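Example 9 (inverse folding). The structure is encoded as follows.
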């Protein structure tokens, strides 16, 4: 299985699948789009017969800086001061982390740099 979009790449080889976060300019922050793409990829890879191990990696100097603070700051401008956005983002984040924990295959974080906040949560999952 292989795919690539602007923010997440997936390559398979020798029964391994490598998911690579590709937002180095944003320190691979977990934007809503990243959370959704990663969740969909994990779900697909967990069910793929030819994949035995999943590796989560990242491009750039940081592994993952956590949630995308620019998205969060922008959400504060909404009439509810971002409450609906934050609730939705936390649900998406929990869904991703639970999908990793519940995957019947080993999921390994290949951490090469800073992993803070939700990025640390991603590593721990």
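The amino acid assigned to each position is listed next.
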């Amino acid at each position: 299985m292989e795919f690539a979009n602007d923010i997440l790449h997936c390559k398979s080889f020798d029964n391994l699948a490598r998911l690579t976060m590709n937002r180095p300019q944003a320190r691979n922050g977990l934007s809503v789009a990243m959370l959704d793409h990663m969740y969909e990829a994990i779900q697909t890879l967990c069910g793929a017969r030819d994949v035995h191990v999943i590796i989560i990696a990242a491009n750039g100097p940081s592994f993952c800086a956590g949630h995308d603070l620019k998205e969060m700051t922008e959400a504060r401008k909404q009439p509810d001061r971002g409450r609906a956005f934050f609730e939705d983002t936390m649900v998406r984040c929990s869904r991703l982390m639970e999908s990793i924990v519940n995957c019947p295959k080993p999921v390994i974080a290949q951490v090469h740099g800073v992993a803070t906040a939700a990025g640390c949560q991603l590593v721990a999952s």
